[in-house]
Design a protein that fits this description.
This protein has about 190 residues and is of the alpha+beta class. It has helices spanning about 15-30, 55-65, 100-115, 140-150; strands at about 5-10, 35-40, 45-55, 75-85, 90-100, 130-140, 155-160, 165-170, 180-185. The protein has a single domain (about 5-185), classed as Alpha-Beta Complex (Cyclic Phosphodiesterase, Chain: A), CATH 3.90.1140. The protein has 4 helices and 9 strands, in the order βαββαββαβαβββ.
Length: about 190
């Protein structure tokens, strides 16, 4: 039996200036109002599609299918902080996309369409471009947590170019996940 790898598609955030702003946002989140685990700065990314455990053969089929993508690179403005699923029961704190989110949605639709050619159904939940920056364990003081988030709601993080999609291997460890890029697909050749 072949080895299974825990994998996902991502658009990585690598710009050091953007990452430093995200680090600053993380430092401004009120740890007394809510117990949170911050995503390590080098792990911050836009999750494009989570697959879970796949064989090396299945991963190669995904690579081959997505290598046919033809989508012009574009710029996005990362701005604003929000939570999922909702402010009354936060589980994830994220930074969002304020400009060109429709391009992210079109690229997501294109990749989903290509993946459907090899048997992967479109995801049910609505796609909202975001990069997780913290996971909320529990909230101690809801109003204080809400007020704190409100103070970061419109923070401008920075502009980045989206020009590739990566498949990442995720190895879970007691101290957090370790991500490794298996391959990268440029959007336009």
């Amino acid at each position: 039996m072949s080895e299974l790898l825990r994998v996902f598609l991502s658009i990585d955030i690598e710009d050091e200036l953007i990452l430093s702003v995200i680090r600053e946002i993380q430092s401004r989140l009120d740890r007394d109002a809510a117990k949170m685990k911050f995503v390590e700065i080098h792990n911050i990314h836009f999750t494009w599609r989570f697959f879970g455990n796949l064989s090396v053969d299945a991963i190669e089929k995904i690579r081959l299918e997505l290598s046919t993508i033809n989508f012009a690179p574009f710029e996005i403005l990362i701005q604003g902080v929000g939570v999922f699923p909702r402010i009354q029961k936060p589980r994830v704190v994220w930074v969002g996309v304020a400009e060109n989110s429709e391009m992210m949605e079109q690229l997501k639709s294109k990749t989903d369409s290509l993946l459907s050619n090899i048997g992967y159904k479109k995801e049910r939940r609505k796609f909202t471009p975001h990069a997780t920056i913290a996971r909320v364990k529990f909230v101690r003081d809801r109003q204080r947590f809400v007020d704190n988030l409100e103070s970061t709601r419109d923070v401008r993080v920075g502009t980045m170019r989206v020009d590739n999609i990566r498949i990442k291997k995720s190895t879970l460890t007691p101290t957090g996940p370790i991500y490794e890029t298996l391959w990268e697909i440029p959007l336009e050749r």
